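Lecture notes, part 5. Sequence design as translation. It can be helpful to think of inverse folding as translation between two languages: the language of shapes and the language of residues. The source text, in structure tokens, appears below.
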């Protein structure tokens, strides 16, 4: 461990991993978290380790070109590298398996994004939340399928798999997972109770225009 700031970065990754597990947004060794320390130096969680019990010394280090410097990094790291290469503002990536968000892609494979135009807060805080087409685990597809959505979208739901959020800080990326799963639960409840109703089209247009004037961060 080379510096105090890296130590703090590792501790924050561990804290986020435990929170994701505590919220039920991943099971056992699922999910991965990364943080870019410099242009070519990325911390990432290890492969095959339960994220509820992870320790700072288990965090791995990789390069932007998928070189392994330290540890046995996540097999899903190609998603993280695709984000860092195609979204220059990205400093952190959080990938988890939140159940409600994932369930939308199983129940509604014909949809291309979460029906966020039912909820004003989602439009303002996150913009569109697309469904990324299915990719076979551990393959280059996992990174390639993200490319059409980068750098415009910071919140992505991965078909039949989970969700990914990136941000200019770890807290922004974590907030993104929280935001999309909360919206997914709310919309699922609405669908079960009686069906989805959209905001009026002109109101959606106004809200999207307000979002466009913001700096793109997830709130
Ligand atoms: Zn995964």
């Amino acid at each position: 461990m080379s510096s105090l700031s890296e130590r703090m970065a590792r501790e924050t990754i561990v804290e986020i991993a435990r929170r994701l597990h505590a919220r039920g947004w991943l099971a056992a060794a699922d999910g991965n978290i990364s943080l870019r320390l410099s242009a070519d130096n990325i911390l990432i969680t290890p492969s095959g380790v339960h994220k509820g019990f992870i320790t700072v010394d288990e965090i791995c280090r990789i390069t932007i070109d998928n070189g392994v410097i330290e540890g046995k990094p996540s097999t899903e790291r190609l998603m993280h590298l695709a984000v860092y290469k195609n979204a220059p503002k990205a400093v952190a990536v959080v990938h988890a398996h939140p159940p409600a968000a994932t369930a939308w892609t199983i129940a509604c494979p014909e949809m291309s994004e979460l029906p966020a135009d039912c909820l004003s807060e989602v439009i303002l805080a996150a913009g569109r939340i697309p469904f990324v087409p299915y990719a076979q685990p551990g393959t280059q597809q996992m990174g390639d399928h993200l490319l059409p959505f980068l750098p415009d979208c910071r919140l992505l739901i991965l078909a039949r798999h989970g969700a990914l959020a990136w941000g200019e800080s770890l807290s922004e990326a974590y907030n993104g997972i929280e935001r999309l799963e909360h919206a997914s639960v709310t919309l699922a409840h609405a669908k079960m109770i009686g069906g989805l109703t959209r905001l009026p089209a002109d109101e959606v247009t106004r809200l999207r225009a307000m979002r466009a004037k913001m700096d793109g961060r997830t709130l």
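The translated text above is only one of many valid answers, since several sequences can fold into similar shapes. The longest strand covers residues 32-38.
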